[in-house]
Each structure stands twice: as C-alpha cells, then as structure tokens.
Amino acid sequence: MIHIFDVDYTVIRHSSAWYFLREALARKIVSFSQIRGIPFEWLRYKIGCANQEFIEESVKYIVGIEKGVLEQIAGDCFDRCLKANIYSGAVSLIREIRSRGETVFFATSSFHTLIKPLEHFLGISESLASTLEFKDGKTTGRLVGESFFGVRKKAAVMAWLEKRALRPEELCFYSDSYTDLPLLEYCGKPVAINPDRFLEREAKNRGWQIFRFKQTLGQIRA
C-alpha cells in the first residue's frame, strides 16, 4: 500500500503558507499589500467556494525573491514555529507506516520549497507539490506547470501512478479538505483527518475512516 498525505491541516495544524508568510512579513520580504486578498480567499474556501486559481494568482505578487532567501526562510520557519505545530498523531502514523516498509509521500498544493524541511524531518524523500518558477535564481511570479489543487492534485497522482504501473486500489490518501474529494474518491482507501464540515459529511455518508488529531509536538514538549 502507498500512503499519500495532504499537508496543511492534515499533518500540520495550519497552512504551511501561513507560517511562511508570518516569517516573510517579519523580515519584510513581502508586504501586507501583496497578500491583502488572502482573507477573502480564505472566506471563499471556508464556505465551500474555493478559488481553483488562487495559487496561480497569488504567486504573481512574489516576483524577484532570491531562491536562497526563500529556502532560508522556510528552514527558519520550520524550526521556529512549524515543527511545534506538527500533529503528533500524524508523526506516529507516518512512522508506523514507514516501519512496515510502505511508501509515504506528500501530495499538496503548498510549494515544495516550504515543505522540504518537513519532508526531511519525517524521512519522506518524495512529494508532489506546487513548484515555483525561478529565473537567474529569483522567482518569476509563475509556477512550473500548475498548482496541485483540487482535480489537479488528482491528475498529478494519476500521472505518478502511470509511470510506475500502479493501480489506484493500492493507494491510501489522507486529507482534511473537501477540495481533495476528487483524489479521495479515486484512491482505494480514503481517510479523512480533521475533516472540514463538507468532507466530514461525505466521509460519514460513504463510511470512510476518520482520524482526529489534536495534540501537536509543541504541546507534548510543553
């Protein structure tokens, strides 16, 4: 069995981009004017009307940032706040799966630059993640290909399977969000982790397994 995890709100308590933006704002790498549309898009998401083009539209505002600066912020962000907000239940589950010799990777609309430290911490060597485009070592304001959001995440996983001659029945996918319903419906074993109200309703109606993670690594240490 191959186990695929969404990241935001599934493995970590908030959005990886949220943690990153806090750090980037503090360092004045980005400004409030550049992210002023995020609260509106968050509201659209919460009421079940997520903007499928949000990520493509958002990266237009982060042009000219050096790749090394982004990687440094991502690393510092992980050490300072993201690591403490990883769900301990997710860590235990992933380590249990890996101890059986089964494959684990992420499929997320978050940027690979942001989740790389999380991959390293959990011993995950591969992910399907949205990828920022760079030219001369700086962001262009575009993605390489498309963001892995909604049906596009499903398409990315399907392509990954085809390259390896694997069947969807061999997949177990874990997510918190209704936007991942296309992939949850496609895989052999769908699992809802801390589901939003839309996904929770679907999961209960379809008899899917539901996990609820509350405690984080930071709470354990405290």
Explain this structure.
The protein has helices at 16-26, 38-46, 54-58, 67-82, 88-99, 112-122, 151-163, 181-186, 197-206, 217-221; strands at residues 2-5, 103-111, 127-130, 132-135, 138-143, 171-175, 189-193, 209-211. It is an alpha/beta fold and 222 residues long. Helix 1 crosses helix 4 and helix 4 crosses helix 6 (112-122). The radius of gyration is 17 Å and the shape is globular. The model has no long low-confidence stretch (mean pLDDT 91).
How do the helices and strands line up, and which of them pair or pack?
Elements: E1 2-5, H1 16-26, H2 38-46, H3 54-58, H4 67-82, H5 88-99, E2 103-111, H6 112-122, E3 127-130, E4 132-135, E5 138-143, H7 151-163, E6 171-175, H8 181-186, E7 189-193, H9 197-206, E8 209-211, H10 217-221
Parallel strand pairs: 1-2, 1-6, 2-3, 6-7, 7-8
Antiparallel strand pairs: 4-5
Helix pairs in contact: 1-4, 4-6
**Structure summary, number of beta strands:** 8
The assigned structural class equals alpha/beta
Number of domains: 1
Order of helices and strands: EHHHHHEHEEEHEHEHEH
Q: Indicate the percent of residues in helices.
A: 40-55%
Total number of helical segments?
Answer: 10
Q: What's the Cα radius of gyration?
A: 17 Å
Which fold name corresponds to the CATH topology?
A: Rossmann fold
Give a quick account of the main beta sheet: strands, pairing sense, barrel closure: 6 strands, parallel
What's the CATH class label? Answer: Alpha Beta
Q: Look at the structure and give the mean pLDDT.
A: 91
N-to-C CA distance: 35 Å
CATH architecture: 3-Layer(aba) Sandwich
Strand fraction? 15-25%
**Spatial strand sequence of the major β-sheet:** 3-2-1-6-7-8
**Poorly predicted spans:** none
